């Protein structure tokens, strides 16, 4: 069994430790790591056309455990304009179920903006 290269060997160990996806030059599929037992070396081989190339880095998997929160965690400024986020099924003022004034059905087919505006108008008239 050959000795693995030490992390301090070479000037840029961060560059050699990064994992890059490699693609087949023949069919453009992903190349997967495979051991060449005859030559005792790591190869990247295509699973469909079996084209292979020698590995430039011996790192095939990385598990980075970070204690810092990611850059995008907690970013919610765009949620208000996101059309996929549903509106609440009840009025934020009175707590009643929002109903559609066109068909009279519940919040699944309702237009919450219109019902909410109407509820606001009713609340302002009652005061």
Automatic annotation (TrEMBL):
Q: Where in the cell is it found?
A: Nucleus, Nucleolus
Signal sequence bounds:
none
An annotated GO cellular component of this protein is: nucleolus
Q: Name one GO molecular function term.
A: zinc ion binding
InterPro entries (alphabetical)? Zn_ribbon_RPB9
Q: Name one GO biological process term.
A: DNA-templated transcription
Spell out the family assignment given in the record's similarity comment: Belongs to the archaeal RpoM/eukaryotic RPA12/RPB9/RPC11 RNA polymerase family.
What SUPFAM superfamilies does the record point to? Zinc beta-ribbon
Q: Which UniProt keywords apply?
A: DNA-directed RNA polymerase, Metal-binding, Nucleus, Transcription, Zinc, Zinc-finger
Q: Which SMART domains match?
A: RPOL9 (SM00661)
Keyword match Transport: no
Protein name (record) = DNA-directed RNA polymerase II subunit RPB9-like zinc ribbon domain-containing protein
Q: Which domain of life is it from?
A: Eukaryota
Domain DNA-directed RNA polymerase II subunit RPB9-like zinc ribbon residues, every copy: 22-75
Q: What is its main location?
A: nucleus
């Amino acid at each position: 069994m050959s000795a693995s290269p030490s992390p301090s060997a070479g000037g840029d160990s961060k560059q050699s430790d990064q994992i890059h996806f490699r693609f087949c030059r023949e069919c453009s599929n992903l190349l997967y790591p495979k051991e060449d037992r005859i030559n005792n070396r790591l190869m990247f081989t295509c699973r469909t056309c079996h084209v292979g190339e020698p590995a430039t880095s011996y790192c095939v998997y990385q598990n980075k455990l970070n204690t810092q929160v990611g850059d995008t965690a907690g970013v919610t400024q765009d949620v208000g304009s996101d059309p996929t986020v549903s509106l609440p099924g009840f009025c934020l003022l009175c707590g009643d179920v929002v109903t559609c004034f066109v068909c009279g059905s519940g919040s699944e087919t309702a237009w919450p903006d219109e019902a909410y505006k109407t509820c606001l108008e009713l609340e302002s008239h009652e005061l």
